[in-house]
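Working notes for the structural subgroup meeting. M.R. asked for a predicted model of this chain before we commit to crystallization trials. I am recording the input and output together here so anyone reviewing the notebook later can reproduce the run.

Input as submitted:
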Amino acid sequence: MSLKEYGPGLEGVIATETKLSFLDTDVEKIIICGHDLIELSKKHQYLDVVHLLLEGELPSSTERAGVKELLQTNYHIPVDVTTLLKLLPKKTHPMDGMRTGLSALAGYDDEIDNREQAVNKKRAYQLLGQLPTVTVNAYRIIKGEDPVNPDPTLSYSENFLYMITGKVPSKVEAEIFDRSLLLYSEHEMPNSTFTARVIASTQSDMYGALTGAVASLKGHLHGGANEAVMYMLNEVETVTQFEELLYQKLVQKEKIMGFGHRVYMKKMDPRALIMKESLKQLSDLDGDHLLLEMCEAGERVLREEKGLYPNLDYYAAPVYWKLGIPIELYTPIFFSARTVGLAAHVIEQHDNNRLFRPRVRYIGKDY
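Returned structure, recorded in token form:
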């Protein structure tokens, strides 16, 4: 390759080969191991996609039950990790708290230097089980609240939402939350996934790769859009006020979070459409359609004024609000859901490794 070839931000550069996922910009589809993600979200559960990403195929009913049981046996985290979280300053960002807890788990892995696929898969399932507990309790402890114990009798999504809200979710609430986790599970090669693969390419362990991914996702140009959307919605009280707020931001040339995507989206993100349907479902249940009407108005304004369409975060935010989830947990939940995709990428990198070592275009002084 000529060293003159250059794409700012690696725009359009093919960084690796993968069997895991692909954003097909021609048909605006998200492909996960040969399956359309949107179709998966209509017919399958998050744990089905966990099995698909880690094992390469959708599970049988027996295999699904096995994944459920395996995660349930790993809900708890070492007591010392909880103690460590209690030592963090109260001004710690929830993403930093989660990053610290995730990193600390590495010390409890007796096979930390083993990169064999079977060991890495075992590690991935264990981390998937532990991450909700780390995520929620890091947030609770930072807020000065007591940590909450997971309930191993509940399914993955039920337990996750129970730990967040303090109550066992209804069937509808659990299904909608599970659907959101599925939609966040994998998305080809965003910055956090690339970060994880770059770290893994040094033969670093899965904990280190995922810890780096947390730091990447914390950045507001990658993660945090769902939080920003909800804060924006909460700035006003009516549909008209929300429209006026958006027009004001457009005049001031402010970036409006929740719209557009770096790789694709000549139309609405198909994942956002699924979450929009979920928001309507929740609105019909509680009889309050204000957030739905505000979001639809915002969708119309950005389409007409900028030709931009909502991405997943735009409608996931009010869905999480309706589910009683604190805004500060939106991005940590995003990461927890994406852990399966990240772990699958780390495993794939370890199995077919080549150290990432790109070059630069020198624009310094002559020599």
